[in-house]
Amino acid sequence: MDNLTRQTASSDTLVTKASEPVTSAFQLRGRMGTLGLLFTVLAFTAPLGVVFSFVSVNISFGIAVPIAFIGVGILMTLFAMGFTGMSKAIPRPGAFYTYIREGLGRPMGLGGSFLALVTYGFNATSCIVVSGIAVNNLAAAFLPGMQTPWWVWSLIMLCAAWILSYFNVELSAKVLSIILVVEIIAVTIFDVFLIAGGGPEGQSIEPWNPTNLITPTLGVLLLFSIGVFNGFEATAIYRDEVRRPEVTIPRATFLAVGFLAVFYAISGYALILSVGTSNAVDSAASDPTALMPNALLSYFGLFANQLIAILLVTSFFASGLSLQNILSRYTHSLAVDGIFPRVIASVHPKHGSPHRAALTVGGFLVLVLLVLILSGGDENALYAGAAGVAFYGMLLLLCLTAVAIIVYFRRSPGAMSFWRTLVAPAIALVGIGFALLTATFNMELLVIGDPTLLAVLLAIPYAAIIAGIVYALFLRRRRTETYQRIGRALE
Which tens digit of pLDDT belongs to each residue from 314-357? Predict the structure, then answer.
């Protein structure tokens, strides 16, 4: 049944009256269940890659990494309460795009959608580069004389994900599920062995002691802890492709947050034990990239280290595929509304996928990769720069969404509790906002470069928002019908 809508006194407010999303020729189709959706969004986070590299960086800022992950998990749960409340109150696809539009108006909604594209786009770019580096390192380990440019492998991985993104999301979900389960098993074996053995100094409760969070580096520790939770919010973008979205999306979202909090906390504890509680911070600070490889060599041998190197490649591939799927669906939503050419909004008659949006996104990423290749930049610097912008953009996107949630539910109160619609998102906003401020004044921790480069990279997310707002104002004057559609409001 078509949604019934009514305009309020503000031209930027549209309240959905029906409980079912609008059916149209542009609606995606799928039958993913909770586990399929959960594995799809968890693959985006690349859990093995996070444990292998980013958790070690976290440890360099303090011993209390495990309890920090639990605390951030609680913070993300509070955000998810309001976020999933929006998914129930506004039964339309679009996720951040739709929710920011409903809370803060059409111009900011379009600005938020552009920010989402930039954020996920830079995330995909960083994943493309690091996947090439990972394959190149793996090939060199087995064939020392082999000399292959990193971008060759990046292009191969990108094209493989591009092909899979064309088909029904359930095919991607199956591939992602297999890869994710294998990497989780591998990390779990590592964790159980290290925790059971206790490492060189034995087991310790110090990493779980909340008082150890009180350090001068608390802001940075929380910043990096929040950063590795990226991905759980992508559940809402698959609204039209899951069974019973009103149940599946909240369930998958909370499961994702809970899993990431526990998984990273336990893995962080295992890494700390691998070198001893008294040495962990100094070891991580001296060479964070060596912490897990050294532990693998010391406790499991060369074969385990090589096996993890292989799994890292599949982990980055899974993350790249998940990101292409997310970008395709944001692009599809903007094309449905007429922001992008409507021809891109076509849905595949057999697969029910945004196949033209997927082709467009894949083609654009290939062009980005070609530009990076021609730039001749160092691959590690390219990866770090793209990851830094994506990291910062996601913090900004979460803050905007938290504000939109609060404003929307204050304007349109419903049956949901005061806690879920105001208190929880407000607490989340304070926590994420603190991380955003920390990142703003410590951008050199996210990206290595001169002050000019840091300023340019920091400006990119804000420029995306401004571009969206300006374009929305242009549409309000010249293309009123398109303007009214912003946020998937009309079909």
Answer: 999 999 999 999 999 999 999 999 999 999 999 998 888 999 99
Tokens of 4: 């019934």
| Alpha-carbon separation of residue 451 from 295, 442, 447 (angstroms) | 36, 11, 10
pLDDT at 399: 95
Integer CA distances (angstroms), 252 to 6, 36, 246, 279, 432, in order? 31, 9, 11, 37, 21
Token output for 147? 């000399």
The number of residues making up the chain comes to 491
Residue showing tokens 């990279």: 457
Q: How many domains does the chain have?
A: 1
DSSP state of 242: B
Residue 14, pLDDT above cutoff 80: no
- 212-220 average pLDDT score: 82
Structural domain includes residue 263: yes
Pick from 118, 166, 116: nearest CA to 357: 166
Element (H, E) at 5: strand 5-7
Question: Does any domain span residue 22?
Answer: no
pLDDT at 488: 83
Separation between Cα atoms, residue 386 and residue 209, nearest integer Å: 34
Q: Which domain holds residue 310?
A: 27-485
DSSP line for 226-247: HHTTTTGGGGGGGGGGBSSHHH
At residue 401 the predicted structure's pLDDT band, cuts being 50, 70 and 90, is very high
Residue 458: CATH number of its domain: 1.20.1740.10
Closest Cα to residue 234, out of 214, 257, 212? 257
Phi, psi of 7 (to 5 degrees): -90, 140
The answer to whether residue 21 is domain-embedded is no
Residue with the two structure tokens 């078509």: 2
Q: Is residue 399 part of a domain?
A: yes
pTM over 0.85: yes
Task: Give me 130's structure tokens.
Answer: 């690091």
Condensed to tens digits (0 to 9), the pLDDT of residues 227-281 reads 888 888 889 999 999 988 999 999 999 999 999 999 999 999 999 999 999 999 9
The 10 Å CB-count burial string (b at 16+, else e) for 210-222 is eebbeeeebbbbb
